[in-house]
Amino acid sequence: EEIRTIFVTGFPSNVHERELHNLVCFLPGYEASQMNTKPATGTAPQGFALFSSHAHAQAAMLTLHDMPFDTDCHLRCEIAHKNMYLKVRHEFRFFVFSLEYRFLRFFIRPSSLRSSPVLTSPEPSFLKPQVTRPPVPSCVPAGMAPPAFTSPLLGGAPAVSFGPVTNKFDNPPCNTLFIGNLGDTVDENELMQVFGNQPGYKQLKLLRHPRQVSCFVEFVDMASASAVHSRLQGCILHTSDRGPIRIQYSKNPYGKR
């Protein structure tokens, strides 16, 4: 059997499974991942990620090995001894992740990791894109501090920067996103340039309160909102004076109030 799974260690003890997902979900050929935070051997947390081919797994291994993940934490990555076993799960969040993976692959299909700070060697031939598409930045796990990078957005919106963001207290997935950590001078036109071109966009509402500026963005379905939740997490707008924006699922989705 072709081994298509990588084994990742070196995580801090308080790592969450979502952080592993954010780390690997945009790597070429990615299919699934899981985190074992309490191994039977009593060792540090262990991560596994399954890819569509052995070549993609090797490319991911080279990308992640020795990557700085947290203070004094560097990842160690190798090809696993056997493939990760995918069991059917019925929890709501895994169903949503499955929708998200399919949606992202269909619309954007990232073909390279040019923005990754650890790619110091020439790109392997099996990673060269077959169709020219804009690179899509992955979400950065909490604790990482890579240099900011830019990427064109889907639909012709202007290029923006991305940065690390901590999003520990999110709500259950829905069709409406809450956009926080906005600058005081942001306006609807700037937000429309970023969110209005995303597949499934329906409407946007900017709210100005005495102490903060926030925004709600509605999409036609949960899959569209989930894709944007991952794709634009940590986006830095031109008017951002507080750092990257924070995207969460709304407590009160449109259409259900």
From TrEMBL:
The keyword RNA-binding applies. The keyword RNA-binding applies. GO terms for molecular function: RNA binding. Keywords: RNA-binding. Residues 175-252 form the RRM domain. CDD domains: RRM_scw1_like. This is RRM domain-containing protein. InterPro entries: Nucleotide-bd_a/b_plait_sf, RBD_domain_sf, RRM_dom. It comes from Volvox carteri f. nagariensis. Pfam families: RRM_1.
